[in-house]
């Protein structure tokens, strides 16, 4: 039974949940046209902004709620703000292409808002029960929006694949949680941490821990649990793909950090080995898989797999520096993803979406400003200094080296070089090849604004790095000391 003190730490989540319930009525009785869809989208965007202000005001408060199942601290506030920024960007960019992408349905923004509530609860999960409930609340709406384009066979296939493999990962997560509970005798992260610190661990607990980590690895599309990612990215409507590529990855990575450094904190040697394997597999499969792609959405899917591998390299360090590196990496990743998909969403020919990499030929001549924007994003993702992507990789690899994981860091650097190939291929097409059929010139203002903000952050990342390091250090310290 909760008390009034439980409400304040979870106020942003409760506010968004209440707005989502209100939007059910708006979606049901406001009509089925694009006008109502934009109305619901605008209300959802306003709710996200208000929730971000709530977090900004109360982010320094470290407390728990609902009998310790919900944790609110600087770490959760920082990661939630990243999720809200990424979700806002993806939802804001969906306003203009609603009609063209056949997602002009009021329930689209409603489902996204419910998924955002789930993501925020994932970040604050401090108990196996709240962890599982949050994961399901995040996943179920995303299964639906992946298949939102009902007149497209690919979209239906994407939603079905995502649902089936997501159900498999949820089963792995739940089975692992039951084994962990069987050993610890409690679902609380603090209780599990105390139990594993007492002595030798039975094999059944280690199996449960591995199952839980693998279940969450599916949510961040880490290899070898990445099978759904390319097909879902390609088949889903592009605004949905933009959402998948940004916000859920941050929430799942934060949950992975909360679980490993919290519940399994005293046995970092055991779970670090699992993360090293996931990191190497993700970096290798992501880098080489992207080279063969001809669709830019599939290429971005493999790119995201590789990026999660780089982030896991810092997480595997099991240190304060590792947490700091992952926080910085995910901060840059949000803006790199938003800026890249702002341009992908603007790729249209005769009003229809164009997602082939070849469609970028000659972009520098027809849309020079957007070609520069995509060039900056590709360089940043490749890790070219002094852009945001470079500093993210620098801090995660530095944490890995300091933790003695030198081979992992070396593999990461080599895979970054391999990954630069497919990023440079896009730049070559834009600047050194011509197109007989240029893309449309009529481009939405929402995408331009998102691209402008993303470019500013990526280009000036080094200028605000000092302040960012201070804030990220507080968040990392909070996570390390609260468990």
Automatic annotation (TrEMBL):
<keyword id="KW-0812">Transmembrane</keyword>
<comment type="subunit">
    <text>NDH-1 is composed of 14 different subunits. Subunits NuoA, H, J, K, L, M, N constitute the membrane sector of the complex.</text>
</comment>
<feature type="transmembrane region" description="Helical">
    <location>
        <begin position="323"/>
        <end position="347"/>
    </location>
</feature>
<dbReference type="GO" id="GO:0050136">
    <property type="term" value="F:NADH dehydrogenase (quinone) (non-electrogenic) activity"/>
</dbReference>
<dbReference type="GO" id="GO:0008137">
    <property type="term" value="F:NADH dehydrogenase (ubiquinone) activity"/>
</dbReference>
<keyword id="KW-0874">Quinone</keyword>
<keyword id="KW-0560">Oxidoreductase</keyword>
<keyword id="KW-0472">Membrane</keyword>
<keyword id="KW-0997">Cell inner membrane</keyword>
<keyword id="KW-1278">Translocase</keyword>
<feature type="domain" description="NADH:quinone oxidoreductase/Mrp antiporter transmembrane">
    <location>
        <begin position="125"/>
        <end position="418"/>
    </location>
</feature>
<feature type="transmembrane region" description="Helical">
    <location>
        <begin position="271"/>
        <end position="292"/>
    </location>
</feature>
<feature type="transmembrane region" description="Helical">
    <location>
        <begin position="14"/>
        <end position="31"/>
    </location>
</feature>
<feature type="transmembrane region" description="Helical">
    <location>
        <begin position="239"/>
        <end position="259"/>
    </location>
</feature>
<comment type="function">
    <text>NDH-1 shuttles electrons from NADH, via FMN and iron-sulfur (Fe-S) centers, to quinones in the respiratory chain. The immediate electron acceptor for the enzyme in this species is believed to be ubiquinone. Couples the redox reaction to proton translocation (for every two electrons transferred, four hydrogen ions are translocated across the cytoplasmic membrane), and thus conserves the redox energy in a proton gradient.</text>
</comment>
<feature type="transmembrane region" description="Helical">
    <location>
        <begin position="40"/>
        <end position="57"/>
    </location>
</feature>
<comment type="similarity">
    <text>Belongs to the complex I subunit 2 family.</text>
</comment>
<dbReference type="GO" id="GO:0012505">
    <property type="term" value="C:endomembrane system"/>
</dbReference>
<dbReference type="GO" id="GO:0042773">
    <property type="term" value="P:ATP synthesis coupled electron transport"/>
</dbReference>
<keyword id="KW-0813">Transport</keyword>
<keyword id="KW-1003">Cell membrane</keyword>
<feature type="transmembrane region" description="Helical">
    <location>
        <begin position="449"/>
        <end position="470"/>
    </location>
</feature>
<protein>
    <recommendedName>
        <fullName>NADH-quinone oxidoreductase subunit N</fullName>
        <ecNumber>7.1.1.-</ecNumber>
    </recommendedName>
</protein>
<keyword id="KW-0520">NAD</keyword>
<feature type="transmembrane region" description="Helical">
    <location>
        <begin position="196"/>
        <end position="218"/>
    </location>
</feature>
<dbReference type="InterPro" id="IPR001750">
    <property type="entry name" value="ND/Mrp_TM"/>
</dbReference>
<feature type="transmembrane region" description="Helical">
    <location>
        <begin position="162"/>
        <end position="184"/>
    </location>
</feature>
<dbReference type="GO" id="GO:0005886">
    <property type="term" value="C:plasma membrane"/>
</dbReference>
<feature type="transmembrane region" description="Helical">
    <location>
        <begin position="107"/>
        <end position="125"/>
    </location>
</feature>
<feature type="transmembrane region" description="Helical">
    <location>
        <begin position="394"/>
        <end position="424"/>
    </location>
</feature>
<keyword id="KW-0830">Ubiquinone</keyword>
<dbReference type="GO" id="GO:0048038">
    <property type="term" value="F:quinone binding"/>
</dbReference>
<feature type="transmembrane region" description="Helical">
    <location>
        <begin position="77"/>
        <end position="95"/>
    </location>
</feature>
<dbReference type="InterPro" id="IPR010096">
    <property type="entry name" value="NADH-Q_OxRdtase_suN/2"/>
</dbReference>
<dbReference type="Pfam" id="PF00361">
    <property type="entry name" value="Proton_antipo_M"/>
</dbReference>
<feature type="transmembrane region" description="Helical">
    <location>
        <begin position="368"/>
        <end position="388"/>
    </location>
</feature>
<keyword id="KW-1133">Transmembrane helix</keyword>
């Amino acid at each position: 039974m909760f008390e009034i003190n439980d409400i304040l730490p979870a106020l942003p989540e409760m506010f968004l949940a209440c707005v989502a319930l209100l939007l059910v009525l708006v979606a049901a009785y406001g009509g089925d046209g694009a006008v109502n869809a934009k109305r619901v989208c605008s209300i959802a965007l306003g709710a996200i902004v208000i929730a971000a202000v709530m977090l900004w005001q109360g982010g320094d408060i470290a407390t728990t709620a609902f009998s310790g199942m919900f944790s609110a601290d600087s770490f959760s506030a920082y990661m939630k703000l990243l999720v809200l920024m990424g979700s806002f960007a993806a939802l804001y960019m969906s306003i203009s292409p609603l009609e063209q992408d056949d997602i002009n349905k009021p329930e689209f923004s409603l489902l996204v808002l419910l998924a955002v509530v789930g993501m925020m609860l994932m970040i604050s999960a401090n108990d196996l029960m709240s962890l599982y409930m949050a994961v399901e609340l995040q996943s179920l709406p995303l299964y639906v929006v992946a298949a939102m384009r009902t007149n497209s066979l690919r979209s239906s296939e994407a939603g079905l694949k995502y649902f089936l493999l997501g159900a498999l990962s949820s089963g792995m997560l739940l089975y692992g949680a039951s084994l962990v509970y069987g050993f610890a005798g409690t679902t609380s992260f603090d209780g599990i941490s105390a139990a594993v610190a007492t002595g030798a661990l039975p094999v059944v607990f280690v199996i449960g821990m591995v199952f839980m980590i693998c279940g969450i690895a599916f949510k961040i599309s880490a290899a070898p649990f990445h099978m759904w990612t390319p097909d879902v990215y390609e088949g889903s409507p592009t605004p949905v793909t933009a959402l998948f590529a940004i916000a859920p990855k941050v929430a799942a990575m934060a949950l992975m950090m909360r679980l490993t450094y919290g519940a399994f904190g005293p046995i970092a040697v055991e779970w670090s080995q699992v993360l090293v394997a996931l990191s190497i597999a993700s970096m290798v499969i992501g880098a080489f898989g992207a080279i063969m792609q001809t669709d830019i959405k599939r290429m971005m899917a493999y790119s995201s797999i590789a990026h999660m591998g780089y982030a896991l390299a810092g997480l595997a360090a099991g240190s304060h520096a590792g947490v700091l590196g992952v926080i910085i990496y995910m901060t840059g990743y949000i803006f790199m993803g938003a800026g890249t998909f702002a341009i992908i969403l603007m790729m249209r020919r005769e009003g229809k979406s164009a997602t082939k990499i070849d469609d970028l030929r000659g972009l520098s001549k027809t849309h020079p400003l957007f070609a520069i924007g995509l060039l900056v994003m590709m360089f940043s993702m490749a890790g070219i200094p002094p852009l945001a992507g470079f500093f993210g990789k620098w801090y995660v690899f530095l944490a890995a080296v300091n933790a003695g994981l030198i081979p992992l860091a070396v593999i990461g650097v080599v895979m970054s070089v391999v990954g630069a190939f497919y990023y440079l291929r896009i730049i070559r097409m834009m600047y050194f090849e011509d197109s007989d059929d240029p893309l449309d010139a009529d481009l939405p203002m929402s995408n331009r604004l998102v691209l402008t903000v993303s470019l500013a952050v990526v280009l000036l990342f080094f200028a605000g790095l000092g302040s960012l390091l201070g804030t990220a250090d507080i968040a990392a310290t909070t996570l390390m000391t609260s468990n």
